[in-house]
């Protein structure tokens, strides 16, 4: 189950930060590589959402502990874990 907060920040990214708003249906068909661009934008939206919702992790944090603490999906917890560990 995806929380409303997680959905909000994901869609907020698409609305305000997607380059050239390529994630809109009208723009989709103008690109021959639309599937690649869409995949990149989905990845970026998930990374943005993880950065907003997952504030910190400890050395012993797991995907399950992050998921429980921040109320995010396991997929987002995994992204957050990777992002925060890459920073250190």
Characterize the structure shown.
With 88 residues, the chain is an all-alpha fold. The chain has helices spanning 4-16, 25-28, 34-53, 63-70, 74-87. Helix 3 (34-53) packs across helix 5 and helix 4 crosses helix 5. The mean pLDDT is 83.
Task: Describe the protein's topology.
Layout: H1 4-16, H2 25-28, H3 34-53, H4 63-70, H5 74-87
Helix pairs in contact: 1-3, 3-5, 4-5
The largest sheet is:
none
Strand fraction: under 5%
Q: Give the low-pLDDT segments.
A: none
One letter per element, helices H and strands E, the order comes to HHHHH
Distance between the termini: 30 Å
The helix fraction, in percent, is 55-70%
* Count of alpha and pi helical runs: 5
Mean pLDDT: 83
Instruction: State the total count of DSSP E strands.
Output: 0
> So what's the overall shape?
globular
Structural class: mainly alpha
Q: What is the alpha-carbon Rg in Å?
A: 14 Å
